[in-house]
Amino acid sequence: MTIAQKLSFDVQLSDHARTAAEREQVLANPGFGQTFTDHMISIDYTDGEGWHDARLMPYGPLSLDPATSVFHYAQELFEGLKAYRQISGSIVTFRPYANAARFNRSAARMAMPELPEETFVESLELLVEHDKEWVPTTEGHSLYLRPFMIATQAGLGVNYPSKTYKYMVIASPAASYFTGGIKPVSVWLSTEYTRAAPGGTGFAKCGGNYAAAFVAQRQAVENGCDQVVWLDAHEHRYVEEMGGMNLFFVFGDKLVTPALTGTLLPGITRESILELAGDLGLETEERLITVDEWQEASASGDLTEVFACGTAAVVTPVGTVKGADRSWTVADGTPGPVTMRVREELVGIQYGARPDTHNWIHKIG
Ligand SMILES: *Cc1c(COP(=O)(O)O)cnc(C)c1O
Q1: Cα dist from 181 to 78, 147, 184, 269, whole Å
Q2: Is 195 in the pocket of ligand 1 (CB under 6 A)?
């Protein structure tokens, strides 16, 4: 049930915010998702009442009954996007309404309430405005924003979804994914495990998809690879995505990406690259692509580059591919020119070095 209402946020400022010196120490070497800013957003939901108790409050632990639904049945979803400090000094986010829309598509699949898109975006703005000193000034660094929602009803009954929920946003300064140059990743083709099946939750950004993925990621590392590549559930023939990123196959001046069949996560970076391609003189195609085609087109030279894309690492070249019974290298295994061009364009728009002709930039401060 969606109740039309305009929420007003209560603002409770932290009385133990980090000092400028403490903050600078974190920002000098932020890593990823390790340290969080001084505040967080919380909004509660109750069936019949809708969203209520919207607030900005000091960052800190939650107190929840051990029988709380999310701990047992994983009714949870999340989003991920970044606030960037542009060259001009402005603080911006990239396509936050696209994240808001995806949040609600995930919510519908998880039998969770939708949050008005305006409230989603306003919650990000409020947090970033209060913690703006945490938005790094170092080139390539950013403030990673993590909106999420959990089922909060206490009780072990499984016949109905929770009647209460909590939406939150936390924020964490993030270094550039690549320190010391762009390095291609090696990937492991997972034929033993499946990430998502038709009718499942593959298109939803829910924690459960990740819980089921760790064992395959660990197997990838045991096989000497950086990342797992997921294949379709039926035949393990069609390529779906890589870890938490979508894949693009470069055939000369054509970009091919796996079609959204319902088992892939529809990345906002993926969608943006499909829209940007025309500006760069590249053709695009969304279709099914098999592991055999990947291997054969690498051998024939028709496939010139492969890259993965997502908010965290933007664009990452894929160098070598390994499976239970085969392994090969894409082109010469080094980052290709199309990969680097797409990456430069996207990063350029995010940091303000390139014109935002698609109106993707949302200014915060
Ligand atoms: C979040 C995510 C992506 C990338 O989505 P972006 O919106 O581009 O960050 C891709 N695959 C999975 C499984 C994801 O969770």
Answers
A1: 30, 30, 10, 21
A2: no
d(CA 232, CA 198): 9
Question: What are the CA-CA distances from residue 265 to residues 163, 249, 270 (Å)?
Answer: 27, 17, 10
Q: Which atom of ligand 1 is found nearest the CA of 245?
A: 10
Does domain 10-174 bear CATH number 3.40.50.1700? no
From the CB of 80, is ligand 1 less than 6 Å away?
Answer: yes
Pocket test for ligand 1, best of 276, 311, 315 (most atoms within 8 A of CB): 311
Which one-letter DSSP state was computed for residue 46?
E
Instruction: Please state, in angstroms and rounded to a whole number, the distance separating the CA atoms of residues 31 and 44.
Output: 31
Mutate to test the pocket of ligand 1, among 210, 264, 265 (most ligand atoms within 8 A of CB): 265
Please say whether the beta carbons of 168 and 202 come within 8 A: no
Which residue puts its alpha carbon closest to atom 12 of ligand 1? 244
* Sign of the dihedral defined by the CA atoms of residues 148, 154, 158, 164, in that order: negative
* Ligand 1 nearest-atom number relative to CA 242: 11
Report, as an integer, the average pLDDT of 38-49. 98
Does the CB atom of residue 202 touch ligand 1 within 6 A? no
The domain segmentation of the chain, as residue ranges, is 10-174, 185-351
How far is it, in rounded angstroms, from Cα 214 to Cα 228?
A: 10
Q: How many Å lie between the centroid of ligand 1 and the Cα of residue 312?
A: 9
CATH of domain 185-351: 3.20.10.10
Q: How do residues 204-221 score in pLDDT, each as one tens digit?
A: 999 999 999 999 999 999
Cβ proximity of 227 and 251 under 8 Å:
no
Evaluate: CB of 315 within 6 angstroms of ligand 1.
no
From the CB of 311, is ligand 1 less than 6 Å away?
yes
User: Could you report the per-residue pLDDT of 311-365, keeping only the tens digit for each?
Assistant: 999 999 999 999 999 999 999 989 999 999 999 999 999 999 999 999 999 999 8
Enter the pTM of the model: 0.96
